[in-house]
Amino acid sequence: MKKTLLFATDLDGTLLRSDGSFSSQDLNSLRLLRDSGCIVVLATGRSPLSLKKCLNGRELPVDWYVLSSGAGILDNRWNVSFSKSLSASHTLQIYNAFIEAGITDISIQGVFPDAHILFWMEGLFCLDFRKRLAYYREFSKKIDNPEIPATEVIGFVSPEEADSVIFELEKTIGKDFSIIRATSPIDHKTVWIEVFAKGVNKASACDVVRNQFHISKQNTAAVGNDWNDIQMLRWAHSSYITANAPEPLLHEFTKVPSNELNGVTVAVNHWLKTL
User: What is the pLDDT along the chain (275 residues), one digit of tens a residue?
Assistant: First the structure.
């Protein structure tokens, strides 16, 4: 069957419920999409290892995985089909930009697909950062020099300082790198400012898949729930935001129920009616 449609969904807070389960109704909606000639893309900030841990052997009705917020793409057999990383000199440049902006809680993620490996240096260590270090204890490595290749560099900041730090980073390194805001999945409050190679985001990765199958932009849709979904939602022709999203995002995209109330299914049904 020729694939003529593309539907992309975020994972945490969108397809995945807060208790770590999936709605059978949402999964069935994705299966029906695939049966009707639609490419289904799961687009998440998680690394391959983090996603495997989350799924814990469960299979999703998905054709492609956009991981690490677009730094890598895997097919549904977990083969890497695309990746884009930072050079050692670029990682050092980003690290120094964070330090100049007053941010010392910084993690450097290993080169994709090993983006779960966390390199760190001495910092103030906010609680969210300490919890992340503890969670990835077996994959955490203290280093003395941040000049190493990486998938991304993450700065951990409070919600109150996030806008000003992002503004400073956009001025100093914004033309050379992709700066993405995300909400911590640990405390659901701390802002992770993630810096990738230029052009990396969920939208650009979804577009790689779209172009591979020659799908028209008119036949694309996406659903998400957080700041790191903005590029993908603005890229898609039809865009949906779940009710559990931050308030500012609820006014830009078509609102659907939360991840607890089959928001993905509602988005799918609404989209199909518009085609």
Answer: 577 999 999 999 999 999 999 999 999 999 999 999 999 999 999 999 999 999 999 999 999 999 999 999 999 999 999 999 999 999 999 999 999 999 999 999 999 999 999 999 987 788 999 999 999 999 999 999 999 999 999 999 999 999 999 999 999 999 999 999 999 999 999 999 999 999 999 999 999 999 999 999 999 999 999 999 999 999 999 999 999 999 999 999 999 999 999 999 999 999 999 98
**What is the number of residues in the chain?**
275
SS3 readout for 202-233 = HHHHHHHHHHHCCCCHHHEEEEECCHHHHHHH
- Write the CATH number of the domain with boundaries 88-197: 3.30.1240.10
Taken in order 102, 105, 110, 116, is the CA torsion positive or negative? negative
- Judge if the upstream peptide bond of residue 113 is cis by omega within 30 degrees of 0: yes
- What pTM, to 2 d.p., does this model score? 0.95
CA–CA dist 212, 64 (Å, integer):
12
Homologous superfamily of domain range 5-83+201-274: HAD superfamily/HAD-like (3.40.50.1000)
Hey, where are the domains in the chain? 5-83+201-274, 88-197
H helix or E strand, kind and range, residue 171: helix 159-173
